[in-house]
Amino acid sequence: MNPALRRPLVAGNWKLHKTVGESTELVAALAKALPAEPTAEVVVAPVFTALSAVRDAAAGSAIAHAAQDVYWEASGAFTGEVSAPLLSDLGCSYVIVGHSERRQLFGESDEHVARKAAAVLGAGMVPIVCCGESLEQREAGETEAHVLSQVGAALAGLSEGDLAKVVIAYEPIWAIGTGRTASPDDAQQVHGAIRGLLSERFGSALADGTRILYGGSVKPGNAAELMAQPDIDGALVGGASLESDSFAAIVAAAQA
Ligand code: PEP
Predict the structure, then answer these.
(1) Among 96, 99, 232, 237, residue to substitute to test ligand 1 (most atoms within 8 Å of Cβ)
(2) Exposed site from 48, 50, 66, 70, fewest CB < 10 Å?
């Protein structure tokens, strides 16, 4: 991590867990467990139904809130969808887009992810764009080609000003929720390749300023070593974000 250029970001993806009451309890416990002004930016992404309660419970703390997904149209006959302006209206600062669970279970394509990222930026929020390879792709030596093609597709068509805001999360699919983590060296290699692509396409100033998070079984015990890598600027955390002490310990590891 290069704190001179990039403030670390630690985001908790609560996935499909927790009622409104449980979500407010968790965010209140987290606010107590964190220092008043953490070095890292801290973000939690509850289910849609808990967003406004989490916003209220986090008021006055350093915790921002994010949505886990979004639809790219602003309004209309799109039953069941939630749009970027509605998330902005709830005070969301970030929206996760292209999580591998969305891609694998709900058929999201690179084109969908690009449209979602553009919609999030258009509504004044920041997309956390996820990318990552399957175990088969890693074993076939296709990791970098796959990840770089996902990143390139997600960012295609964005203006320079919008590109400068985007956060990328590298999450090897085989490491998500499995307890298996990429080694710091392996993760660094992919993060370095992503930054290299950004530099080649958009220039070194933009590449040096872009935060690239690592996700995939990040825990208090492995967070510091991962985030000490020069191109790892924080973490996207699933399981370990569902408990205030473990998430706070990961936030603390980002400031070391
Ligand atoms: C995730 O869902 O983005 C994630 C990284 O999950 P976990 O930390 O549980 O592997």
Answers:
(1) 237
(2) 48
